[in-house]
């Protein structure tokens, strides 16, 4: 297990370009399974989760060519479906969340899709009911081996139907959508997730010959087609990484430019940071964060304490709440952070409390943060990254703290952040990777 050693208190400066979006890339890479033709994908982040998924596709027999650092071609013209029933697949498939999205394309194209219970962050219950209920509605038979936590769906043919998802699951919507594009007849998916990454997947599928309308809304219409062809697709910048860089800039009181962020796809994100009192300037498609000695949390119009909570898109993403929480520890004022979706994502605040932050964990979903307004700096400490976003939040805390901190279990951070230590060093941070 590797660690980061971080000497806090150094300012950052210059500019940073966000990586391609992890959660979009995971969907897009699964979609290449829908055709036997070549698909080119650009701006794929070089991170553990994405590389694990590419490995799984390789084991399945997909021909993969890396044409540059972040571009690949994939061709799924001769698959080894026996791999799906192997012990290796049980191990590989369970190591990340994104692997669940191979099921829809495999079911649609080959009549069967299997998956061990997928991994991902341990941030609370992560059920898959929405996915499998959707496949069943399309006509698949479902089985679950409880002992091995192994899921399977099979169908000779899928038939379009109307469905109302029980929740707007992101990976669930992507999975069902990828199955429905090759079903016979028309499918409607209501209460579909509609975040930019689902929009991107829909655009890619349409570029491959699918017939999806309603893109960007929570009601998708899919007219099934017989087959899909190849295409070229470019992944959007990672909005969660963009939010993380905003956190690093403001907690170190630095000026930073975040390049080519695709402002139109950031939804509530800029507004939420502005509610914390952070100045963000739109400069063409860049975000410029000026050096700020202090930022003051806005209250509601009636003077009551601000709440920042997550909600399915176009609400605020749950993946940035840990980062907002750490930023609030140095704001002027008080905020209630309400993590509605996941029940085990806020426990990392214990570490921030050890570092001197004023945080009250009200219950597993809610924490009140009383900011220091930089009147008192966080103290360096040794800590372990429990999940990807808590890990980055602890990294942000360490960059702003007095003294040298160690963060263990940084594989959690590497799951989603490309070369984070190198990129931080390039803009002035003192961070070292220690291979234990
Ligand atoms: C690989 C990937 O893309 N992972 C993302 C994806 O995970 P993933 O697709 O697994 O997450 P889901 O959208 O299925 O749901 C996330 C959690 O929110 C709950 N829920 C969901 C919808 C809803 O209307 N109400 C509700 O409470 C679910 O029960 C679940 O506990 O979306 C999550 C929610 O944006 C993100 O945190 C993950 O980073
Ligand atoms: C929760 C996350 O990822 P995953 O769904 O892959 O666990 C995340 O990216 O914050």
UniProtKB/TrEMBL annotation:
Residues 7-423 form the Enolpyruvate transferase domain. It is found in: Cytoplasm. Keywords: Cell cycle, Cell division, Cell shape, Cell wall biogenesis/degradation, Cytoplasm, Peptidoglycan synthesis, Transferase. One of its GO terms (molecular function) is UDP-N-acetylglucosamine 1-carboxyvinyltransferase activity. PANTHER family: UDP-N-ACETYLGLUCOSAMINE 1-CARBOXYVINYLTRANSFERASE. It is an enzyme of class 2 (transferase). The active site is at 121 (proton donor). Cell wall formation. Adds enolpyruvyl to UDP-N-acetylglucosamine. InterPro entries: Enolpyruvate_Tfrase_dom (IPR001986), Enolpyruvate_Tfrase_sf (IPR036968), MurA_subfamily (IPR050068), RNA3'P_cycl/enolpyr_Trfase_a/b (IPR013792), UDP_GlcNAc_COvinyl_MurA (IPR005750). This is UDP-N-acetylglucosamine 1-carboxyvinyltransferase. UDP-N-acetyl-alpha-D-glucosamine binds at residues 97, 319, 341. Belongs to the EPSP synthase family. MurA subfamily. One of its GO terms (cellular component) is cytoplasm. Coiled coil: none annotated. Its EC number is 2.5.1.7. It catalyses: phosphoenolpyruvate + UDP-N-acetyl-alpha-D-glucosamine = UDP-N-acetyl-3-O-(1-carboxyvinyl)-alpha-D-glucosamine + phosphate. Pfam families: EPSP_synthase. Phosphoenolpyruvate binds at residues 22-23. GO terms for biological process: cell division; cell wall organization; peptidoglycan biosynthetic process; regulation of cell shape; UDP-N-acetylgalactosamine biosynthetic process. Pathway: Cell wall biogenesis; peptidoglycan biosynthesis.
């Amino acid at each position: 297990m590797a660690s980061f050693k971080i000497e806090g208190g150094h300012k950052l400066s210059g500019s940073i370009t966000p990586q391609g979006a992890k959660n979009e890339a995971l969907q897009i890479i699964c979609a290449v399974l829908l055709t036997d033709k070549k698909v080119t994908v650009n701006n794929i982040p070089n991170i553990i989760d994405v590389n694990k998924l590419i490995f799984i596709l390789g084991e399945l027999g997909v021909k993969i060519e890396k044409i540059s650092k972040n571009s690949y071609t994939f061709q799924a013209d001769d698959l080894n479906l026996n791999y799906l029933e192997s012990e290796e697949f049980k191990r590989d498939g369970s190591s990340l969340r994104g692997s669940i999205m191979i099921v829809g394309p495999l079911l649609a194209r080959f009549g069967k899709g299997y998956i061990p219970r997928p991994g991902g962050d341990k941030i609370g219950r992560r059920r898959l009911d929405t996915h499998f209920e959707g496949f069943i509605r399309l006509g698949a038979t479902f089985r679950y081996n409880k002992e091995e936590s192994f899921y399977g769906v099979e169908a000779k043919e899928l038939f379009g139907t109307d469905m109302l998802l029980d929740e707007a699951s992101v990976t669930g919507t992507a999975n069902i959508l990828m199955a429905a594009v090759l079903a016979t007849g028309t499918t409607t998916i209501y209460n579909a997730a509609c975040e930019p990454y689902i929009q991107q997947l829909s655009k890619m599928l349409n570029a491959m010959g699918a017939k999806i309308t309603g893109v960007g809304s929570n009601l998708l219409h899919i007219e099934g087609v017989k087959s899909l062809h190849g295409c070229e697709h470019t992944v959007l910048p990672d909005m969660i990484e963009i939010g993380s860089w905003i956190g690093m800039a403001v907690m170190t009181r630095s000026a930073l430019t975040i390049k080519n962020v695709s402002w139109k796809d950031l939804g509530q994100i800029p507004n939420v940071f502005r509610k914390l009192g952070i100045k963000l300037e739109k400069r063409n498609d860049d975000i410029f964060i000026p050096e700020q000695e202090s930022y003051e949390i806005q209250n509601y119009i009636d003077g009551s304490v601000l709440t920042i909570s997550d909600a399915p898109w176009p609400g605020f993403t749950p993946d940035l709440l840990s980062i907002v929480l750490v930023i609030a520890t140095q704001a002027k004022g008080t905020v209630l952070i309400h993590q509605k979706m996941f029940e085990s994502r806020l426990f990392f605040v214990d570490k921030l409390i050890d570092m001197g932050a004023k945080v009250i964990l009200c219950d597993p979903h809610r924490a009140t943060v009383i900011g220091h307004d930089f009147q008192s700096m966080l103290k360096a400490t040794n800590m372990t990254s429990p999940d990807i976003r808590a890990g980055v939040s602890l990294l942000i805390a360490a960059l702003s703290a007095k003294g040298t901190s160690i963060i263990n279990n940084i594989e959690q951070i590497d799951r989603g952040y490309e070369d984070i230590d190198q990129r931080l060093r390039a803009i002035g941070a003192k961070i070292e990777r220690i291979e234990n």
